[in-house]
Amino acid sequence: MPESAANRATPRVPFSLLDLAQIGSGETVAEALNHSREMARFADTTGYQRIWYAEHHNMSMIGSAAPAVLVAHMAAHTSRIRLGSGGVMLPNHSPLAIAEQYGTLAELYPNRIDLGLGRAPGGDPATFTALRRTPAASEHFPGDVVELQKYFAGATVHGVRAVPGAGTRVPLYILGSSLFGAQLAAALGLPYAFASHFAPAALEQAISLYRRDFRPAELPDGGQTEPHLMVAATVIADDDADRAHQQLRDAKIRRIKFLFNRGRNMTTAEAEAQLDGPQGMHVNEMLRCAAVGTGEQVLAQLDDFALQTGADELILAPLASDREVWHGTVEKLAPPA
Protein backbone atom coordinates (compact mmCIF):
# COMPACT_ATOMS: atom_id res chain seq x y z
CA MET A 1 0.00 0.00 0.00
CA PRO A 2 1.29 3.53 -0.75
CA GLU A 3 2.48 5.36 2.32
CA SER A 4 0.09 8.13 3.41
CA ALA A 5 1.29 11.66 4.06
CA ALA A 6 -0.02 11.43 7.61
CA ASN A 7 2.33 8.53 8.41
CA ARG A 8 5.41 9.87 6.64
CA ALA A 9 8.38 11.33 8.45
CA THR A 10 8.88 15.09 8.17
CA PRO A 11 11.43 15.97 5.44
CA ARG A 12 14.82 17.42 6.36
CA VAL A 13 13.70 20.85 5.08
CA PRO A 14 10.29 22.27 4.10
CA PHE A 15 8.89 21.31 0.70
CA SER A 16 7.13 23.70 -1.68
CA LEU A 17 5.78 23.29 -5.21
CA LEU A 18 6.50 24.96 -8.55
CA ASP A 19 3.56 24.59 -10.93
CA LEU A 20 4.20 25.48 -14.57
CA ALA A 21 0.54 24.83 -15.41
CA GLN A 22 1.76 22.43 -18.08
CA ILE A 23 -0.72 21.70 -20.87
CA GLY A 24 -0.59 18.00 -21.61
CA SER A 25 -1.04 16.37 -25.00
CA GLY A 26 -4.71 16.53 -25.93
CA GLU A 27 -5.55 18.87 -23.04
CA THR A 28 -7.16 22.27 -23.29
CA VAL A 29 -5.81 25.19 -21.29
CA ALA A 30 -8.91 25.06 -19.12
CA GLU A 31 -8.33 21.37 -18.34
CA ALA A 32 -4.69 22.02 -17.46
CA LEU A 33 -5.63 24.84 -15.09
CA ASN A 34 -8.27 22.63 -13.48
CA HIS A 35 -5.51 20.12 -12.71
CA SER A 36 -3.48 22.93 -11.16
CA ARG A 37 -6.41 23.92 -8.99
CA GLU A 38 -6.91 20.35 -7.76
CA MET A 39 -3.22 20.13 -6.94
CA ALA A 40 -3.40 23.37 -4.96
CA ARG A 41 -6.44 22.13 -3.05
CA PHE A 42 -4.62 18.93 -2.12
CA ALA A 43 -1.38 20.70 -1.18
CA ASP A 44 -3.37 23.04 1.06
CA THR A 45 -4.39 20.07 3.24
CA THR A 46 -0.79 18.87 3.72
CA GLY A 47 2.50 20.33 4.90
CA TYR A 48 3.65 21.96 1.66
CA GLN A 49 4.82 25.51 2.42
CA ARG A 50 3.92 27.33 -0.80
CA ILE A 51 3.04 26.98 -4.48
CA TRP A 52 4.61 29.28 -7.06
CA TYR A 53 3.62 29.92 -10.68
CA ALA A 54 6.21 30.92 -13.28
CA GLU A 55 5.69 33.56 -15.95
CA HIS A 56 6.18 32.03 -19.40
CA HIS A 57 5.08 33.42 -22.74
CA ASN A 58 4.58 32.04 -26.24
CA MET A 59 4.96 28.43 -25.11
CA SER A 60 2.22 26.08 -26.25
CA MET A 61 2.82 23.59 -23.43
CA ILE A 62 2.74 26.06 -20.51
CA GLY A 63 -0.31 27.95 -19.27
CA SER A 64 1.24 30.21 -16.62
CA ALA A 65 1.62 33.45 -18.62
CA ALA A 66 -0.24 35.45 -15.94
CA PRO A 67 0.96 34.35 -12.47
CA ALA A 68 -1.04 37.00 -10.57
CA VAL A 69 -4.28 35.69 -12.06
CA LEU A 70 -3.38 32.12 -11.12
CA VAL A 71 -2.42 33.18 -7.60
CA ALA A 72 -5.75 34.93 -7.14
CA HIS A 73 -7.70 31.93 -8.39
CA MET A 74 -5.78 29.39 -6.30
CA ALA A 75 -5.97 31.56 -3.19
CA ALA A 76 -9.76 31.65 -3.54
CA HIS A 77 -9.81 27.84 -3.52
CA THR A 78 -7.39 27.29 -0.61
CA SER A 79 -7.14 28.54 2.94
CA ARG A 80 -3.62 28.00 4.31
CA ILE A 81 -0.86 27.51 1.78
CA ARG A 82 1.24 30.46 0.60
CA LEU A 83 0.95 31.34 -3.09
CA GLY A 84 3.14 33.42 -5.33
CA SER A 85 5.21 33.85 -8.44
CA GLY A 86 8.24 31.82 -9.25
CA GLY A 87 8.55 34.17 -10.78
CA VAL A 88 7.37 37.40 -12.25
CA MET A 89 9.82 38.36 -15.00
CA LEU A 90 10.22 41.94 -13.82
CA PRO A 91 11.76 43.39 -17.03
CA ASN A 92 8.41 42.68 -18.69
CA HIS A 93 6.56 45.02 -16.32
CA SER A 94 6.72 48.31 -14.51
CA PRO A 95 7.47 47.94 -10.77
CA LEU A 96 4.37 50.02 -9.99
CA ALA A 97 2.06 47.62 -11.86
CA ILE A 98 3.52 44.62 -10.02
CA ALA A 99 3.30 46.43 -6.66
CA GLU A 100 -0.36 47.14 -7.29
CA GLN A 101 -1.14 43.58 -8.46
CA TYR A 102 0.58 41.78 -5.60
CA GLY A 103 -0.39 44.46 -3.11
CA THR A 104 -4.02 43.81 -4.03
CA LEU A 105 -3.48 40.08 -3.55
CA ALA A 106 -1.85 40.71 -0.17
CA GLU A 107 -4.84 42.76 0.96
CA LEU A 108 -7.26 40.05 -0.17
CA TYR A 109 -5.22 37.15 1.25
CA PRO A 110 -3.11 38.51 4.14
CA ASN A 111 0.14 36.70 5.01
CA ARG A 112 -0.24 34.25 2.12
CA ILE A 113 1.33 36.02 -0.88
CA ASP A 114 4.94 35.76 -2.11
CA LEU A 115 6.63 37.62 -4.97
CA GLY A 116 9.51 35.83 -6.65
CA LEU A 117 11.34 37.96 -9.22
CA GLY A 118 13.44 37.04 -12.23
CA ARG A 119 15.21 39.13 -14.87
CA ALA A 120 14.73 36.84 -17.89
CA PRO A 121 11.98 37.61 -20.45
CA GLY A 122 10.14 34.34 -19.82
CA GLY A 123 9.93 33.77 -23.56
CA ASP A 124 11.61 34.39 -26.91
CA PRO A 125 12.69 37.79 -28.34
CA ALA A 126 9.26 38.17 -29.93
CA THR A 127 7.84 38.26 -26.41
CA PHE A 128 9.70 41.48 -25.60
CA THR A 129 8.36 43.08 -28.75
CA ALA A 130 4.78 42.00 -28.05
CA LEU A 131 5.04 43.30 -24.48
CA ARG A 132 6.40 46.63 -25.76
CA ARG A 133 9.70 46.01 -23.97
CA THR A 134 13.32 45.70 -25.11
CA PRO A 135 16.14 43.38 -23.95
CA ALA A 136 17.78 46.41 -22.35
CA ALA A 137 15.03 46.35 -19.72
CA SER A 138 16.90 43.52 -17.99
CA GLU A 139 19.71 45.94 -17.19
CA HIS A 140 17.37 47.85 -14.85
CA PHE A 141 16.44 44.76 -12.82
CA PRO A 142 18.35 45.65 -9.60
CA GLY A 143 16.90 49.15 -9.54
CA ASP A 144 13.42 47.84 -10.30
CA VAL A 145 13.64 45.45 -7.34
CA VAL A 146 14.58 48.31 -5.03
CA GLU A 147 11.72 50.39 -6.44
CA LEU A 148 9.31 47.54 -5.67
CA GLN A 149 10.58 47.39 -2.09
CA LYS A 150 9.88 51.10 -1.70
CA TYR A 151 6.32 50.78 -3.00
CA PHE A 152 5.55 47.92 -0.62
CA ALA A 153 7.06 49.87 2.28
CA GLY A 154 4.65 52.74 1.58
CA ALA A 155 7.07 55.20 -0.01
CA THR A 156 6.19 57.60 -2.81
CA VAL A 157 8.29 56.91 -5.92
CA HIS A 158 8.29 59.14 -9.02
CA GLY A 159 5.47 61.04 -7.34
CA VAL A 160 3.32 57.90 -7.08
CA ARG A 161 2.21 55.75 -4.15
CA ALA A 162 1.09 52.16 -4.79
CA VAL A 163 -2.53 51.77 -3.70
CA PRO A 164 -3.14 48.92 -3.05
CA GLY A 165 0.39 47.85 -2.17
CA ALA A 166 1.67 50.47 0.23
CA GLY A 167 2.38 48.99 3.63
CA THR A 168 1.76 45.37 2.62
CA ARG A 169 5.50 44.54 2.59
CA VAL A 170 4.96 41.54 0.31
CA PRO A 171 8.04 39.33 0.78
CA LEU A 172 10.38 39.40 -2.21
CA TYR A 173 12.51 36.49 -3.42
CA ILE A 174 15.24 36.76 -6.05
CA LEU A 175 15.22 33.92 -8.58
CA GLY A 176 18.15 32.96 -10.71
CA SER A 177 20.12 30.33 -12.60
CA SER A 178 23.43 32.20 -12.65
CA LEU A 179 25.66 34.12 -10.27
CA PHE A 180 23.92 37.44 -10.97
CA GLY A 181 20.80 36.59 -8.97
CA ALA A 182 22.87 35.25 -6.09
CA GLN A 183 24.90 38.47 -5.97
CA LEU A 184 21.78 40.65 -6.00
CA ALA A 185 19.95 38.62 -3.35
CA ALA A 186 23.03 38.71 -1.12
CA ALA A 187 23.52 42.46 -1.57
CA LEU A 188 19.88 43.24 -0.75
CA GLY A 189 19.60 40.72 2.09
CA LEU A 190 16.77 38.85 0.35
CA PRO A 191 15.89 35.14 0.05
CA TYR A 192 17.31 33.42 -3.02
CA ALA A 193 15.79 30.64 -5.13
CA PHE A 194 18.02 28.80 -7.60
CA ALA A 195 16.43 27.26 -10.72
CA SER A 196 18.32 23.99 -10.58
CA HIS A 197 15.27 22.13 -11.95
CA PHE A 198 16.32 23.22 -15.47
CA ALA A 199 19.71 25.02 -15.21
CA PRO A 200 21.91 23.47 -12.51
CA ALA A 201 25.34 24.31 -13.96
CA ALA A 202 26.09 27.21 -11.58
CA LEU A 203 24.30 25.76 -8.55
CA GLU A 204 27.30 25.19 -6.30
CA GLN A 205 28.96 28.52 -7.16
CA ALA A 206 25.75 30.48 -6.68
CA ILE A 207 25.07 28.93 -3.27
CA SER A 208 28.61 29.63 -2.10
CA LEU A 209 28.46 33.24 -3.30
CA TYR A 210 25.06 33.86 -1.70
CA ARG A 211 26.10 32.47 1.66
CA ARG A 212 29.46 34.27 1.62
CA ASP A 213 28.27 37.71 0.52
CA PHE A 214 24.88 37.92 2.25
CA ARG A 215 24.37 41.32 3.90
CA PRO A 216 21.45 41.50 6.35
CA ALA A 217 18.78 44.10 5.65
CA GLU A 218 16.88 46.01 8.32
CA LEU A 219 13.37 44.83 9.16
CA PRO A 220 10.52 47.14 10.26
CA ASP A 221 10.60 45.66 13.77
CA GLY A 222 14.28 46.53 14.18
CA GLY A 223 15.56 43.04 13.41
CA GLN A 224 17.58 41.90 10.42
CA THR A 225 16.99 39.48 7.57
CA GLU A 226 18.78 36.16 7.46
CA PRO A 227 19.83 34.17 4.40
CA HIS A 228 17.18 31.79 3.08
CA LEU A 229 18.14 29.47 0.23
CA MET A 230 15.53 27.71 -1.85
CA VAL A 231 16.71 25.08 -4.34
CA ALA A 232 14.50 23.61 -7.07
CA ALA A 233 14.34 19.96 -8.08
CA THR A 234 12.44 18.10 -10.77
CA VAL A 235 10.42 15.24 -9.25
CA ILE A 236 8.62 12.17 -10.61
CA ALA A 237 7.37 9.54 -8.13
CA ASP A 238 5.29 6.43 -8.76
CA ASP A 239 4.72 3.09 -7.08
CA ASP A 240 6.30 1.60 -10.22
CA ALA A 241 9.86 2.99 -10.38
CA ASP A 242 10.22 1.90 -14.02
CA ARG A 243 7.12 3.91 -14.91
CA ALA A 244 8.61 6.96 -13.19
CA HIS A 245 11.87 6.64 -15.11
CA GLN A 246 9.97 6.21 -18.38
CA GLN A 247 8.18 9.49 -17.60
CA LEU A 248 11.57 11.16 -17.21
CA ARG A 249 12.70 9.71 -20.54
CA ASP A 250 9.53 11.01 -22.17
CA ALA A 251 10.19 14.44 -20.64
CA LYS A 252 13.69 14.48 -22.11
CA ILE A 253 12.32 13.66 -25.55
CA ARG A 254 9.81 16.52 -25.26
CA ARG A 255 12.60 18.85 -24.17
CA ILE A 256 14.75 17.89 -27.17
CA LYS A 257 11.83 18.56 -29.52
CA PHE A 258 11.21 21.94 -27.90
CA LEU A 259 14.84 23.09 -27.88
CA PHE A 260 16.13 21.70 -31.17
CA ASN A 261 13.10 21.68 -33.45
CA ARG A 262 14.64 24.50 -35.57
CA GLY A 263 11.42 25.41 -37.32
CA ARG A 264 10.42 21.91 -38.41
CA ASN A 265 8.24 19.26 -36.84
CA MET A 266 10.76 16.90 -35.29
CA THR A 267 9.18 13.50 -34.80
CA THR A 268 9.31 11.65 -31.51
CA ALA A 269 11.52 8.98 -33.13
CA GLU A 270 13.96 11.64 -34.33
CA ALA A 271 14.08 13.23 -30.89
CA GLU A 272 14.57 9.87 -29.20
CA ALA A 273 17.50 9.17 -31.50
CA GLN A 274 19.18 12.30 -30.11
CA LEU A 275 19.10 11.08 -26.50
CA ASP A 276 22.62 9.63 -26.75
CA GLY A 277 23.98 12.54 -28.78
CA PRO A 278 25.02 16.12 -27.92
CA GLN A 279 21.41 17.29 -27.66
CA GLY A 280 20.64 14.49 -25.25
CA MET A 281 23.70 15.33 -23.16
CA HIS A 282 22.53 18.94 -22.98
CA VAL A 283 19.07 17.90 -21.80
CA ASN A 284 20.54 15.39 -19.33
CA GLU A 285 22.52 18.25 -17.77
CA MET A 286 19.41 20.43 -17.62
CA LEU A 287 17.60 17.70 -15.68
CA ARG A 288 20.54 16.67 -13.54
CA CYS A 289 18.73 17.70 -10.36
CA ALA A 290 15.87 15.28 -10.87
CA ALA A 291 14.63 12.91 -8.17
CA VAL A 292 12.91 9.93 -9.79
CA GLY A 293 11.61 6.57 -8.55
CA THR A 294 9.19 5.33 -5.95
CA GLY A 295 7.95 7.77 -3.33
CA GLU A 296 10.42 6.47 -0.76
CA GLN A 297 13.30 6.61 -3.24
CA VAL A 298 12.49 10.18 -4.27
CA LEU A 299 12.17 11.32 -0.66
CA ALA A 300 15.59 9.82 0.09
CA GLN A 301 17.09 11.54 -2.97
CA LEU A 302 15.58 14.88 -1.92
CA ASP A 303 16.92 14.43 1.60
CA ASP A 304 20.42 13.91 0.17
CA PHE A 305 19.99 16.91 -2.15
CA ALA A 306 19.00 19.17 0.74
CA LEU A 307 22.01 17.97 2.74
CA GLN A 308 24.44 18.46 -0.16
CA THR A 309 23.23 21.97 -1.01
CA GLY A 310 22.52 23.20 2.50
CA ALA A 311 19.13 24.36 1.27
CA ASP A 312 16.69 25.88 3.73
CA GLU A 313 13.77 24.81 1.53
CA LEU A 314 13.23 22.66 -1.57
CA ILE A 315 10.77 23.72 -4.24
CA LEU A 316 9.63 20.71 -6.24
CA ALA A 317 8.66 20.80 -9.92
CA PRO A 318 6.51 17.77 -10.88
CA LEU A 319 7.36 16.87 -14.47
CA ALA A 320 5.36 13.76 -15.46
CA SER A 321 3.15 14.18 -18.53
CA ASP A 322 0.88 11.37 -17.34
CA ARG A 323 -1.63 13.16 -15.10
CA GLU A 324 -2.00 10.14 -12.83
CA VAL A 325 1.74 10.15 -12.16
CA TRP A 326 1.79 13.97 -11.91
CA HIS A 327 -0.89 14.05 -9.23
CA GLY A 328 0.56 10.95 -7.59
CA THR A 329 3.98 12.61 -7.32
CA VAL A 330 2.55 15.51 -5.36
CA GLU A 331 0.63 13.14 -3.09
CA LYS A 332 3.52 10.75 -2.43
CA LEU A 333 5.95 13.53 -1.52
CA ALA A 334 3.52 15.56 0.59
CA PRO A 335 4.91 16.42 4.04
CA PRO A 336 2.56 15.73 6.95
CA ALA A 337 0.30 18.62 7.85
Structure description:
GO terms for molecular function: monooxygenase activity; oxidoreductase activity, acting on paired donors, with incorporation or reduction of molecular oxygen. The chain has about 325 residues and is α/β, with parallel strands linked by helices. It has one domain: TIM Barrel, CATH 3.20.20. About 40% of the residues lie in helices and about 15% in strands. Strand 5, helix 6 and strand 6 form a beta-alpha-beta unit. Helix 1 packs parallel to helix 12, helix 3 crosses helix 5 and helix 8 packs across helix 10. The longest helix has 20 residues.
Give a nutshell description of this structure.
The protein is an alpha/beta fold and 337 residues long.
Element layout with pairings:
Blueprint: E1 15-19, H1 29-44, E2 50-53, H2 67-76, E3 82-89, H3 95-108, E4 113-118, H4 125-130, H5 141-153, E5 172-176, H6 179-188, E6 192-194, H7 203-213, E7 229-237, H8 241-260, H9 268-273, H10 278-286, E8 290-293, H11 295-309, E9 313-318, H12 323-332
